[in-house]
Amino acid sequence: MSSPSPHAGVAVVLVTHDGARWLPGVLAGLAEQDAVARVVAVDTGSLDASRDLVRGAFPDADLLELTSAVSFPGAVDAALAHLDALPPEQRPEWVWLLHDDARPAPGALAALLEAASDRPDVDVLGPKLREWPSLRRLLELGVTISGTGRRETGLETGEYDQGQHDERREVLAVNSAGMLARREVLAGLGGFDERLPMFGNDVDLGWRAAAAGHTTLVVPEAVVFHAEAAHRGLRRTALTGRHTHFQERRAALYTLLVNSRTAALPWRVLRLTLGTLVRMLGFVLLRSVGEALDDLAALVAVVGRPGAVRAGRRARREQARRLGSAPDTARVKALLPPPWVPYRHGLDFLADVTSAASQQAADIGERRRIAAAEADPSSLAAARLRAEQARRERDDDEEGELADTGAFARFVTNPVALALTAVVVVLLVGAGAAWGSVSGGALSPVPEGAGDWWSLHLDAWHELAGGTDVPAPPYVLPLALLASVVGTTAAVSALLVLSAPFALWGAFRFLRVTGRLVSTRGAPRVLLVGGATAYAVVPVVSGAWGNGRLGVVVAAALLPWLAHATLGFADPEPDRRRRAGWRVGLLLALVASFTPLVWVLAAVVVVLGLLVTLLLARSALASRTAWSPPLVALLVPVVVLLPWWLPALRAGAGDALLLEAGRVPAESLTSSGLLTGRLDVAYGAPDWVGWLLLGLAVVALVPRATRIPVTVCWLVALLAAGLAALLAPLSLTALTTTTPPGLAVLVVVVQGCLLTAAVLGGQGLARSRLNSLTRTVALGLAAVAAAVPVAGLVWAVTGDDALESDPAGVVPAYMEQRVEQSPARGVLVVTGSIADGLAYEVRRGDGVTLGEDEVLALTPEDAATTEAVRDLAARPTRDLVDRLGEDGVQWLLLPAPADGEVAARLDATSGLTQSGSDPGSRAWEVTRPLGDGVAGDGSSLRPVLLGVQGLAVLVALVLALPTLRAPRPPAPDETPDERTGRAS
């Protein structure tokens, strides 16, 4: 330490606690300062060589030895008391606080004192803090606190110091590591708050200083390197504990509550409570459950113990009275961050999640090639990788040159973009029948509002027909979520209209990735566009779209994304494989909610795949991360869909596990329809288009370069076809009829496999050396292949459909209005005749809507009700009419053509009064006392199952998301060079 300077009134207060790891560098940096008159070292019970290091570096230093129970504020108070005990002429004007892990750069103290000389009104000054040991990363240039308790530095995470913040400015607070403060001001403020033993005391002191009218200045010319040992968990004490985040959050909440205005305190508590819940959700998404619990514990520790907050507020009021002035709230408000800053952080977080999620879904081909190249740098794979990287760099340079021409110019010069845009336009035009309100075929009308779908999903008992405890189909939940944003009509319309473009996008991505897995050059772009287009129109050419098979349409749109996600099982990184399992599980659950047979097929593929691998390549399954992700993917849908399949089995509606979304009966599937991808003759495209695709998939087995992946596609297609053949003979009971299982999704899977095989085969053929004869054959095959997507697009525009924008109702409008106002009231609709047989249904609310149709179809027939309706039509009596009233039936309707014999008997029945009806139909109103309908309680297990479902979705979603931040590695023992500031 040099001799005293004109600024001899500076005392350094160095607080140490087991800091021998950093103290040599700190003491060396302190010895380089030119304006230190006295060093007061306060050691709080160190068990290492900290005290010996201080004595060896500064023999004349005042060393205060305290116990480990003393906090940082207590250590500073002890140093201030020691300085106050000195003779008046030896008491310093300034106190410079240093931590034992904060090394000052040469000239740091001189820069602070120079700034103090330039600004005599300043009472507290702070340096620029840079990270130790990186030395270049900025930590703080002053600090403030947001309304949600976030410590705001105004810096980006990991931002390097390039002089971009080198201007002196007033701030709310500066870090206590390197803080220079007037001794009298520091003592007048009462020092640091003892209730903030380790974290947050600097912000609290700065807030109190600003409220008392003092100015705090940050001086970027002064630099201090800070290791942040306590914050990073590199040093744990009884004061920091094992939960550093809890201590930091508790300090932030306490600081806000004790320093806020009394009038704003209730709003502050409410905001912090709600903000804590939002922060907890964010931490859960980051898979930091411990930090989420720490946030909750900190809130409870502060808000749940108001005594400490009241004592802190009382101390600040006493301080204001002692100083003789009211708190300067205007000064404090000007130094706090704007109120919109927390919302900006929230948007940034969502942007990071979205960006990372899109990046994790990128193809894995390059990562596998990089892994192979790193394993053997001299291999052919490494050479190919280097050549590919060089080619991509050239492409990037060309794209950079084109960037100057603008986005529009790049778009119009990109043939793939133009082709895909044209396809999307054609698909949107072809889906014109689905714009707006739509129903028909297998698609029931939608309810009035999303609340109806929510009730259907949440309720254990449904007041439909005679009442039922059959659970709602699982796809009601995603429909309710979507309808809560856009409405029920727009939700179904959007699914029908946008399904094909979404399938086009997913198929293009999947085919591009599979092509790159086969070859670094990937498939030719014309093959990608053609194959994606052919897949996008599969629901249309099969007839599923025209017949309103919403489940098949949605499943077809999601299957390429599901297949794309399964490629993550082959990722070389174990963490990515694990997350791929959860991601595939969520997508599989979503697809299975519309078409449950997809899960059955997935289980068959996974089990057989693992068995074959076990027999042929046992070493490939040596690691748990190789076989567990596919099993996790199968387990997730089982848990997520638990509120559906378990109550369905308990209610005797197990047939639901083999049906798809939509009205019953489902279409029967023929062997030719399975091969050609045709479900409905009336709305499907001509069979020759399907035969063309089948022939192309067979020819795709010829090229040797792609024979293995093409064979894999054929194996999956054969498994799907075999499952369809196995289930086709089954006959399921629904309503009073029978229906085949919902096999339509297996047709989509087979078509997707054949298309993938054809594209891969075309890729292999295109990359092969061809003579004149094979070139002619290849051109012929290309012409045949082009007919498949072209014919599909033509059929998408010209094909017929059963969708109606305004379906005709059976029930008269006045009855519908009355029962909508009183959902417990119903209309008994009896169709047919005594001679040919009668059928009936009870309409309640707004009629049978999407989702309710399946509940009614799977509800077992009530034999007593059926007998009562039969007797009512054949021998109506007053007792039967009374029973209608007890069940809440207000009207009896015989739609056109009404059976005259039945109508005549009902006309003469006491308790029935003729009512208005449409031509050809007859209606009566029940004049007997009406009961409360068919109310019931259902199973009390429903809330538990819904809770398990919500928790399962949350856990799977969190584990499927990408890792947004890597664990912080421990800082090495690295110190700055004494003269250059570089790591030594």
Automatic annotation (TrEMBL):
Alphabetized InterPro entries for the sequence: Glycosyltransf_2 (IPR050834), Nucleotide-diphossugar_trans (IPR029044)
Pfam families, alphabetized: Glyco_tranf_2_3
Keyword Membrane: yes
Keywords associated with the record: Membrane, Transmembrane, Transmembrane helix
Keyword Transcription regulation: no
SUPFAM superfamilies: Nucleotide-diphospho-sugar transferases (SSF53448)
Name of this chain's protein: Glycosyltransferase family 2 protein
